[in-house]
Each structure stands twice: as structure tokens, then as C-alpha cells.
Amino acid sequence: MGSLLSFALAIFFSLLLHADEPQPPDVKLGYYRVTLGQKDIPVTNLYTAPGFSYRKLPISYVAVTQSGPSDVVIEAGESIQTFDWGPQTGGSAPVVKDQQLHLHIESAPAKIAVRINHNQWLFLFLDSPEAMRPDPKAADVISLASYGIDSTGKRLETVALQKAIDDAAARGKPTTLFVPPGTYRTGSLWMKSNVTLYLDEGATVLGDDKEDSYPLVPYEHQPQWAASADPQTISSPSAATGPLRA
Fold this sequence. Notes:
- This protein is mainly beta.
- The chain has helices at 7-17, 158-170, 224-227, and strands spanning 33-36, 39-41, 44-45, 59-65, 70-75, 83-86, 95-97, 100-105, 110-116, 121-127, 141-143, 152-156, 175-179, 182-186, 195-199, 203-207, 216-217, 233-234, 240-241, 244-245.
- It folds into 2 domains: 7-127, Dex49a from penicillium minioluteum complex, domain 1 (Sandwich), CATH 2.60.350; 141-245, Single-stranded right-handed beta-helix, Pectin lyase-like (Pectate Lyase C-like, 3 Solenoid).
């Protein structure tokens, strides 16, 4: 079962929801706090990610695995005057209590977009517990553990991670690259055909905080929306946390 979190989906939702709105920096940027069952959930702000400063993408998101009904509380650090949300099939209508927005979600998987006071959009990606975890020792699986890659997040491992992806693609048939628990710091990574990147629970692929880890993407290799905006787009990965199948 795949995760609802993906960088491509976040970009798609952003372009769709902001198609008729003023472009950044007209959108007010802020910081959301999200709790689920009284537990703080990390919020990722894409507009602060390396390589995105020239567009200031007005997107924040949270991703969490949850079974059963969920009560989500969202705070924006200010009084709530207005809010937007959707799709309205993802849960009950949000309720404002003091400076908090309360939302009840019946079940996972679910994806819901929320915006408070015309700030940037916050995407909530709730995934259900993993049902079919691949066997790291299976013939169609390559485990990252065999590459001796640092799993503490202290060392940049872009080259080794890319080699693992390339090795999986070189098989010429569907192959899963299994990422064990740990934190793997990286710059730009390029996915290949026939490769499934699976992040086990407790695994995080974390984008490096140095701009030179994200080289300029040649014009002919850029997606159409980026190429039309800037012929020298800086590439950047999404931060992702397992369990995740991408």
C-alpha cells in the first residue's frame, strides 16, 4: 500500500489550488502546528527547502501513519478569521475553538488540504499501517544496508544512494530498493524506471541543507512547469519518512 505522501502530488495540488490566485510572495507565509491525539506531528515547509527560494512555494505538509479515527488540531499562531479545506469527503467539517482548528478524520488513508487566514496551504497525509512490507532478502529486493551507507544523517550520502538506485535499475526488471530504519542525508536523487523506493518504518530520507547539493537541472530535463518559469531550475528532493513506497 503506497504512501499518500509524494513530492509530485504536493506540487500538483499546489498548482491546482493556486491556479487563480496571486503568485508568491503575495501569499502569506507562516508556520503551522499540528497535533494528532495530543502528539505533535512534524510540519515540513517546502518554501524553506534548498532550491525553492526563487519560487517560495506556499506549501506545508504533515505525513503520519494512523489506524482508526483521528482527531487533528491545527494552530497557525494567530486568531482564526477564515479557513478553507477540502476535499470535503475526507472528514467532518473543521470546527474553530479559540485559536485552534479541530478536524475529525474517520479513517486512513486520507489526504486533506487546509488553509487558515489565507496563509499557505497545509496538506494532511494520513496513511494506514503498512500491510505488505517487502522482504529485504527477496530476489527482487535490494537492501540499502548492503551499501554501508551512513544511517545517522551526519554524512552526505548522495553518491552512494544514487548508485543503489542505478544498480536496481540496471537489473532491467521491477526491483525494490529497501531503505532500513535510520536517517539518510542526500542531495538530488534521480529515480529510474522499474525501481520502487521503499522506506521502512523509522526510515527518513532527508534533504541536505547546502545549496550546492542541488545542481542546476539542464533545461531539456526539467518538467514543463519548472522550465517555463526558469531555464536554470535547481533540483531538490522531498523529505520523506517511512513507511513509504514511492
